[in-house]
Write a structure and sequence with these properties.
378 residues; mainly beta; Neuraminidase; seven-stranded antiparallel beta sheet; five-stranded mixed beta sheet; 5 helices; globular
Length: 378
């Protein structure tokens, strides 16, 4: 069956008001500096790795990828909100974690997952969290008083939760499910989940974006304190959450403010964070070096994707689904890559082009094959 990319850019549709004291700080400013626009994506990510995930009846990945996470030499991939599978460094299938169902060790819907420091796995099933060992053995269930869409592990006994239909949107809980702190009062606005809700800013901070605005909630993992922060300075004229909250819903805001610039995608690893600015129908992707809060480069639709040879934003779409400390990650379907290779014959001498061609030499049916996992490092 032919696979299709189902979304242009994953966007967190969360209409909330952040009621904090004092003015927000900003991390970077794009309007006052000259930023180099990269011609080729490989000039930025010179260290890339391509891994063909094996295809078996047991390991076949569904069409909608929810989240990709790396731990050691293994990869964890959730899809279709129904399954979580693991592969090793060579792309060999290892196991499936848990099962769908209504039993005590089963999940009815896999909203999100994360990994504890010891490698154990935690899965969000709405009103409960399910804990499994690294080998997939069920350990226990943690009942919740809130509905959990997304989860971010801080340590073995502390988690950030993105909640649904609750009084607040972000909660800090302990390993028993007790609420330690709650942030971002919702003002009765609708909340929809996103595949990856929490993003690392360096090693010490976790960011949570409000809607697709310039406003973020920041959590300091050392002090356990929350703060309000803007990604970009006011001169960049990017959407402010207070403007969104003047309307009953996001569609009303977009109708009355069609020219508003938005942060429509974000991903991070170690000291790098990229964010996509949507200005009407135009997209620009900036790479931020968080160790010095400097913007190193810019990707646009004119940037040539000479790593997967697909459209540059197709590759970046999947990167926004990854959660890793080591690298940016993406999954590309074989039929997309082959179409890209056939459309870029002029780059056939490129080493990445030849690497991708060689991956499919022994795969007779690429239409039914699992995707290629792509790691990108600076």
């Amino acid at each position: 069956m032919k696979r299709h990319t189902l979304f242009i850019l994953p966007i967190c549709v969360i209409l909330i008001g952040c009621k904090g004291d004092g003015s927000n700080d900003s991390i970077a400013c794009i309007s006052s500096i000259s930023i180099k626009e990269e011609r080729y994506i490989s000039s930025v990510f010179s260290n890339s790795e391509l891994i063909q995930l094996e295809t078996t009846d047991e390991s076949l990945i569904g069409q909608r990828i929810n989240k990709i996470k790396k731990y050691g030499d293994n990869y964890f991939i959730s899809y279709d909100n129904t399954a979580l599978v693991t592969f090793d460094r060579q792309g060999k299938f290892i196991r499936k974690i848990g099962e769908t169902g209504r039993g005590p060790s089963e999940y009815t819907r896999l909203y999100d997952f994360d990994l504890l420091p010891d490698g154990n796995i935690i899965i969000s099933d709405g009103k409960k969290l399910l804990l499994y060992s690294y080998t997939g053995k069920f350990i226990k269930a943690i009942e919740l008083d809130i509905v959990c869409f997304n989860i971010k592990v801080i340590d073995e006994d502390c988690f950030l939760i993105c909640a649904s239909a609750e009084e607040y949107s972000v909660y800090l809980i302990n390993g028993n499910g007790d609420i330690l702190s709650k942030q971002l009062e919702r003002d009765n606005r609708m909340v929809l989940g996103r595949n990856v809700a929490f993003f690392a800013l360096g090693k010490d901070h976790i960011l949570y974006q409000q809607d697709n605005s310039n406003n973020f909630l920041s959590f300091n993992v050392k002090t356990r304190e929350f703060a309000n922060i803007d990604l970009l300075c006011r001169e960049d004229n990017v959407l402010d959450i207070e403007e969104v909250n003047k309307y009953q819903n996001l569609l009303d805001h977009e109708k009355h403010n069609p020219d508003a610039k938005k942060i429509a995608g974000i991903a991070s690893y170690i000291n790098y964070l990229f964010f996509v600015i949507q200005d009407q129908s135009k997209f620009k992707c900036y790479l931020l070096n968080t160790s010095g809060n400097t913007i190193d480069c810019l990707f646009t639709e004119d940037t040539i994707d000479d790593i997967s040879f697909t459209n540059i934003f197709s590759l970046l779409n999947y990167i926004t689904l990854s959660d890793s400390e080591e690298c940016f990650m993406a999954l590309m379907w074989p039929h997309e890559i082959i179409e890209g290779l056939n459309s870029n014959i002029e780059l056939s001498e490129h080493s990445n082009y030849q690497r991708l061609r060689s991956l499919f030499e022994n795969i007779p049916n690429t239409e039914g094959a699992n995707p290629v996992l792509i790691e990108l490092r600076r």
